[in-house]
């Protein structure tokens, strides 16, 4: 049985906007992920999120919005329509209708004061590519299972150790593939030599 990859978190520092409607509803909007931007992950490797990485998961997942990744501080949910997610040319667009709760009011105040610095998302990688031809390994995330999005006060790149394990798995798979290919070449040479020895060819 194949084990599922562990969850990771990534953040982006982009302006989080506050929008108020005539009926008093307050909506915050921003981007939890930006496509094509190369980010250094703790100096170990570079990472980029490919356009379309969220296409499959947005069609099937019920995603929650939190404050600072705290599951006890829910701000919205796609199933209820209070969280809306979409891919556009820039990245993963997020809109959250803030609840009239202490957390909702706190988030609204923090955005108005300029204390909220960005958004983040929790995910599992379902498809990726690694390129080690350069000085630093580069990971391209092609598809994810989106678990949650968060409004965060201190954007940070969490889950580096998990991504490093992913790199090691990719390296092991590549070594196994190269070893198997080498075995096939050796076997083919042995078979050809044996055939020549027996005068078959």
Automatic annotation (TrEMBL):
Looking up InterPro entries in the UniProt record yields: Peptidase_S78_dom (IPR054613), Prohead_protease (IPR006433)
For molecular function, the Gene Ontology terms on record are: peptidase activity
Which species is this UniProt entry from?
Paracoccus nototheniae
Protein name in the entry: HK97 family phage prohead protease
> Sorted alphabetically, which keywords does the UniProt record give?
Hydrolase, Protease, Viral release from host cell
Q: Which GO terms describe its biological process?
A: proteolysis
Tagged with keyword GTP-binding: no
Q: Where is the Prohead serine protease domain?
A: 16-170
